[in-house]
Amino acid sequence: MSRPQDPPRSFFPFGNPFRMIAPKGTKLSPQLLEVICNFEAKLEERMKKLIPKSKDEILCLSWMTSAMQALCESHNDIKTLIDNLELPVHDWDEKWIDVYLDISVKLLDVCIAFSSELSRLNQGQLLLQCALHHLDESSSKQFVRASSSLDGWRQHIGSQNPRIEKCGNILEDLKGSLDLLKVKKSAKGKVLMQAIYGVKALTVFVCSVFAAVFSGSTKNLLDLDVADMHSWAPAFKSLQNVVNEEIRVRFSSGRLMVLSELEAVDSSVKELYPTIQGVDVDTIESESLVKIVEKFGRETEKLSQGLDLLAKEVDGFFQVVLSGRDALLSNLRSGATFNDSILGGNRDAQAVN
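Request: output the structure for the sequence above.
Response:
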């Protein structure tokens, strides 16, 4: 890790692995220009799709699921790009390999932190289900038990996840590695580095949003200053500005839960709790209670389904990073063609961070 006074590291702090591939001053051919233009067009389209049409669409599990899907698709595009470029594996610098492995480990750590938080939220679902079970029977004894389950959920959901708290430093390190190194001696290297820059920018942005939402704090929210030279830069900046601004607005208003589905459940709990706590069954209006419980059940189910879908996408991204590391190490041992993803990014591919 660089010292605080040192400038951020580039993708290749120890030298350019493409330095021997092509002569100095190589320019992009029309074919390579078409390749990178097509790549960036697809990346730009994904970013545009993530720009919410309304503020209500921003901090919800469906948006987060779409964002994680966009990361997996973008990393898969990197694999396809490397396949098309047919970049060979020569004698890669061991120091560069160490740097890549270090960065991919950071991505794995972030994925593990996100998975642990989703697991923690799912554990809270058990308490909500217990409350719903007790509410099936209209008795003072069952209402007391339901109230106890709701109390337990509030305490559980308000606790902190140590793994999420560590994400801030990891993301800062990843942000520091965003500098785009100029590859002067390889046309293919230029294309590859330009593609990686965009994918990595999207990855760091999405992960910082997740970390902010899960931690309940804007301290993990990053603002990336991407290079204007890229066609996708306007879309990225619009996406970042809209999402980050809304996150900051919600936190500044004192809202402890910024995730929409979680807020909806919390609102239902606040409505239900005083109705069933310490009251005689005879004093409760049955029709009113049924409506409140039904609403609580619907919101609980939405949260449960959303968490499950997002957890699958996060696990999928983890597998992309992990399998990419394995593929790189395998290719290096066998001297095979380097046709895998970078950045920690594709199933059979490996990395140039």
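The radius of gyration is 24 Å.
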